[in-house]
Write a structure and sequence with these properties.
Elements: H1 2-15, H2 28-52
């Protein structure tokens, strides 16, 4: 139920910039394309979560990698 409500809210928010209530004729193809973009993005996140979570892959490394040493060929600033 919560997912359906969330999907309905997203559809309204995405369709709102098209202002279908202000037009005499709504371009249905354009509206479908506007709704397909967020839908595909949401499906891809669901796909990634479902199939990559059993692999135990973390979203980010636990510690940031060390910075590389500064190149010695750069001239030093002389103030």
């Amino acid at each position: 139920m919560r997912d359906a409500l969330g999907s309905a809210v997203v559809a309204v928010v995405v369709a709102a910039p098209a202002r279908p209530w202000a037009a005499h004729e709504v371009d249905v193809a354009g509206l479908v394309w506007m709704l397909l973009g967020p839908a595909i993005l949401g499906v891809s996140f669901g796909y990634a979560r479902r199939f990559s979570s059993p692999l135990g892959i973390t979203a980010a490394p636990r510690e940031p990698p060390p910075l590389p040493p500064s190149p010695t060929f750069w001239p030093r600033a002389r103030w």
